[in-house]
Write a structure and sequence with these properties.
The protein is of the alpha/beta class and 257 residues long. It is built from five helices and twelve strands. The strands form three sheets. A six-stranded mixed sheet has the order 1-7-8-6-4-5. A three-stranded antiparallel sheet has the order 9-2-10.
Length: 257
């Protein structure tokens, strides 16, 4: 895999020989990561007062979508591919190698806590990686990435050009955050800022978690332990609902077709 000499990519890396941005694919997925010029991950940093922000505290997991909590069945492997339009880039293999690298590092950061496996596939696929043509969003600022929740349909992991102007650490942490959504996790502030979708807390609600925004968006050992504990309880049948909201296990598209 090719190694870049700098830890960010400028916009020209994603242009064709004529200087055109080739990606115009839209995505309606709801989960977004935002950034701002002070290198924080979000324009929507939620201020919660708490004296318990150390890594050895029990961190929160927020889960649920409307009438159920979608999580993955055991032994699921999500197959993914690059959208074929990546091949239109003048240096398409460099682009794909770079994204493979940050994606792989994000997978490794979750480690054994990941409830699913990932496998690149050029044939069958459960989700594809696409590039959005710009960074703008209706509330201002810029969007770094959007992901999806567990489900049986083919999905997309959308990357935005601004992601590649961030440091390599920021790029990897953004993908770690988006993987949290793929695992079924909601934002830390979901009950306040995303109240149109019902959510429930598993664990003690404190802000230091990868599923937050801003300086508190950090993957902790407790994040991983809690995710492992959640799925272990679900898969062994000892946890079937959280506060009355039923857990619904999902298989992936390629394993039901």
């Amino acid at each position: 895999m090719k190694t870049k000499t700098k830890d960010y990519l400028d916009q020209n890396f994603f242009l064709d020989a004529e200087g055109n941005n080739l990606f115009s694919i839209e995505s309606a997925e709801p989960m977004q990561h935002f950034c701002q010029t002070d290198h924080s991950e979000s324009l929507l940093v939620v201020g919660h007062s708490s004296n318990s922000t150390q890594k050895n505290e029990l961190t929160e997991l927020v889960v649920g979508l409307q009438s159920n909590i979608p999580l993955w069945q055991q032994n699921v492997t999500l197959k993914w591919r690059f959208n074929p339009m990546f091949n239109n880039y003048n240096n398409s293999e460099d682009v794909k190698d770079y994204i493979r690298n940050i994606f792989g590092q994000a997978v490794n950061k979750w480690g054994d806590a990941s409830p699913i496996a990932f496998m690149e596939s050029t044939d069958e696929w459960d989700f594809e990686i696409i590039m959005h043509p710009n960074d703008c969003n209706p509330i201002g600022g810029c969007t770094l990435a959007k992901a999806f929740f567990p489900g049986r349909n083919q999905n997309t992991l959308t990357l935005y050009p601004k992601l590649f102007n961030q440091s390599s650490t920021e790029q990897i942490e953004t993908i770690i955050h988006e993987m949290g959504h793929i695992f079924g996790l909601r934002h830390y502030f979901a009950q306040e800022r995303e109240s149109s979708w019902r959510s429930e807390v598993f664990g003690t609600h404190v802000p230091l978690t990868i599923m937050n925004y801003g300086p508190n968006s950090v993957l902790t050992d407790q994040d991983k332990l809690d995710l492992h504990r959640l799925y272990d309880a679900v898969w062994t049948g000892t946890l079937q609902n959280i506060n009355g909201l039923p857990i619904q296990l999902q298989n992936c598209y390629t394993q039901i077709n």
